[in-house]
Every structure is written in C-alpha cells, then in structure tokens.
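Postdoc handover notes: sequence design on the structure in folder B. Input tokens:
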C-alpha cells in the first residue's frame, strides 16, 4: 500500500530544510538581541481558548479549526494561530505576577482545515512576537521594529508595513453600536451571511467580499471616529517612533 502526504501539507527536506533552519536561527538571533525569550506552547489546546480569543463567529473558529473530542471528552483544537496560546501560558505560569513585562517570541506549526490552494496550507509555519504586561506605545513600536529587523536579516526587502489602530475595548463597543445603527436599515442589501453576522458579530460584516455588501460597507462608519484622546495619542507616538527609525508604512 502506498501512502501520500495530505494535500495542503509539505515534506520539508534538502534545500528547503536548510532555509527553514536559516530563518529560525535568524529569528532567535534578532529577537534575542531585542531581549525576547522563546516560548513553545502545545500544538493542542482546549477549543474554548480559541473561541474565546478569536470569537465564535470568525471563519477560523466556524470553518477552519481542526477540532475533536478526546477520550476524556474534552474538546481540543490544533492551534490555528500563536497568540492565544502565548497569552494562556503567560497567565497560567503566572509570568504576570513573577515578572510583569514579558517579551516573548514563538516559532512553530499552525493548522487550519482550509481548502488547499495557492498560499493556503493545512499545516503552515509562523514566527511571531508578543509583548505582554505593557500598554506603552514603545512596546508596540518595539514589536513592529523587531519584526522588520527580522525580515531584513533574512533578505526580505520588498515587504510593506500597514498600520491600524484598534483603540480600547470601550471604544470598540461604541464602534460596534455605530455599525449596527448604520447596517440595520440596509439589512436587505446584505448577503445572508452578513445578515447573520449583524446579529452575532457586526465587525465580521466589514470583512465580507461579496460585491453587494462591499457597496454598503464602503460608506460605513470608521473606527477613527470614536477614538478618544489617549488612543489617538498612543497611535501617533507609535508612528513617530517608526518615522524616527526611518521605517516606511501606510495606514
């Protein structure tokens, strides 16, 4: 009997294995110079970790997670992204109490049960950084700057940095209500999925690719309209730091 690898997965060997080693070594070198420590979290986590972190109405949770019930009747999932596990480990291991500020990076495989196609794999690999325990704009800047330095170190020169400002939890709540108020009278012009999203998670409407929905979304309220002075000031400081270091970006 002959077995073949699953579509959307790769065997990594030869030159490609060398490139993986090169990228991982560069990450450990660059992030280590910035004072980041490597954290390795399990591939398997409780499913609820991701539903809580990503939201039950996201495509990742609804359509893309590899999930199953194990012998202990616990619902588990193969990690679809790295941040949720890092935050869980930070809290569970009481790093918030032991050291407060934690500068961490991760390297590992992620899994999503997507339809295999160009640029989308069932098993893919991510390198990322997280700074936990600080609300300073310097922390945001350092995370972005360290990632830019990593890309430079592996010879990636044509990347483009795009910035966004999500504001505070309270401001996103105000934005949520503004979106509902805007979309509700136009519900009949939205696709079936977006009508459901309007009730479950209105932010997901903004991601819709259906052309009729894009027309409605075009004139929807912007988050920038509800941001307070602190959030705007934080964002401006991040942009100032990036400009000082000569890092180009768009918004």
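Designed sequence:
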């Amino acid at each position: 009997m002959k077995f073949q690898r699953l579509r959307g997965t790769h065997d990594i060997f030869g030159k490609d294995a060398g490139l993986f080693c090169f990228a991982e070594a560069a990450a450990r070198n660059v992030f280590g110079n910035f004072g980041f420590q490597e954290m390795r979290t399990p591939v398997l986590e409780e499913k609820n970790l991701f539903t809580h972190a990503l939201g039950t109405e996201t495509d990742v949770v609804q359509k893309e997670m590899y999930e199953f019930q194990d012998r202990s009747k616990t619902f588990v999932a193969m990690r679809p992204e790295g941040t949720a596990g890092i935050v869980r480990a930070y809290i569970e291991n009481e790093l918030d109490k032991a050291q407060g500020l934690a500068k961490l990076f991760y390297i590992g495989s992620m899994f999503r049960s997507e339809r295999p196609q160009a640029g989308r794999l069932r098993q893919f690999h991510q390198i990322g950084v997280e700074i936990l325990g600080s609300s300073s704009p310097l922390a945001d800047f350092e995370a972005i700057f360290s990632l830019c330095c990593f890309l430079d170190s592996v010879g990636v020169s044509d990347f483009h940095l795009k910035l966004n400002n999500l504001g505070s939890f309270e401001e996103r709540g105000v934005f949520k209500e503004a979106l509902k108020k805007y979309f509700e009278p136009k519900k009949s012009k939205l696709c079936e999925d977006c009508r459901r999203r309007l009730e479950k998670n209105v932010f997901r409407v903004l991601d819709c690719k259906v052309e009729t929905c894009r027309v409605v979304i075009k004139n929807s309220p912007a988050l920038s309209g509800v941001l307070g002075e602190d959030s705007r000031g934080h964002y401006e400081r991040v942009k100032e730091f990036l400009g000082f270091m000569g890092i180009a970006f768009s918004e």
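Context for whoever picks this up: DSSP finds ten helices and six strands in the chain. Don't rerun without checking with the PI first.
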